[in-house]
Amino acid sequence: MKxxxxxxxxxxxxxxxxDLDIEESILIEVSKALRQIEFGSIxxxxxxxxxxxxxxxxxxxxxx
Length: 64
Description:
Helix content is 33%, strand content 27%. By secondary structure, the chain is α+β, with helices and mostly antiparallel strands.
């Protein structure tokens, strides 16, 4: 596990390559959820500044 207090990477982020991998995987999951949902909501759960969960809720509308 890397120490977050280490010197910043050249682009200014503490652990740029690892953070980018995590951010990319989060964006992929959000993108998948957006493509799969027609009606409903997507909730991104964050704890201490980090994404820790993704919840989707779909709504089914029944015509009378």
